[in-house]
C-alpha cells in the first residue's frame, strides 16, 4: 500500500503528482527544483545557491517522512549544463558522507521545469 507524503515546507506540486510516495519502507521523492516554498520564487542567483535550495526542499520532504539524507539510497541529478557539474557536486557533497553516500546518476538534459539549472529526485529507505 502506498502513502502520500507532502509538506508545506517544500514547493507544492504543480501537476498531477505528489512530493513523495511511501511504498512499504521506501520513499520515492519527486524531483525538486530551487523553488522557495514560502514565496514560490525561483532561487537561481548562482548555481551553488540554487543547489542548496534544492537540497533544502529535499530535506523538508524527507523530514515529513521522518527520514534524513542518511536514508537516501539513490539520487538522480539532472543538470542543464554539464559545465556546472563540479559546482553542483561541491554543494551536493556537503549533504552526504562520502563513505556512505547513495548511488547516483547525473545527466545533462535539454531543459528542466521552469528552465532551472538543476533538479534532484531521491529514493530513501527506512
From TrEMBL:
UniProt name for this protein: Reactive intermediate/imine deaminase
Residues of the signal peptide: none
Gene label: yjgF
CDD domains: YjgF_YER057c_UK114_family
Protein origin, superkingdom: Bacteria
GO molecular function, one term: deaminase activity
Lineage: Bacteria, Pseudomonadati, Bacteroidota, Saprospiria, Saprospirales
A GO CC term assigned to this protein in UniProt: cytosol
Family listed: Belongs to the RutC family.
InterPro entries: RidA, RutC-like_sf, YjgF/YER057c/UK114
Amino acid at each position: 500500500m502506498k502513502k502520500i507524503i507532502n509538506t508545506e515546507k517544500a514547493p507544492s506540486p504543480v501537476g498531477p503528482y505528489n512530493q513523495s510516495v511511501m511504498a512499504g519502507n521506501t520513499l520515492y521523492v519527486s524531483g525538486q527544483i530551487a523553488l522557495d516554498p514560502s514565496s514560490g520564487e525561483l532561487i537561481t542567483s548562482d548555481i551553488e545557491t540554487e543547489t542548496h535550495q534544492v537540497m533544502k526542499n529535499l530535506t523538508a520532504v524527507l523530514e515529513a517522512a521522518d527520514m534524513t539524507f542518511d536514508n537516501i539510497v539513490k539520487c538522480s541529478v539532472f543538470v542543464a549544463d554539464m559545465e556546472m557539474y563540479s559546482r553542483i557536486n561541491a554543494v551536493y557533497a556537503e549533504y552526504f558522507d562520502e563513505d556512505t553516500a547513495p548511488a547516483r546518476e547525473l545527466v545533462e538534459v535539454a531543459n528542466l521545469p521552469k528552465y532551472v539549472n538543476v533538479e534532484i529526485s531521491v529514493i530513501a529507505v527506512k
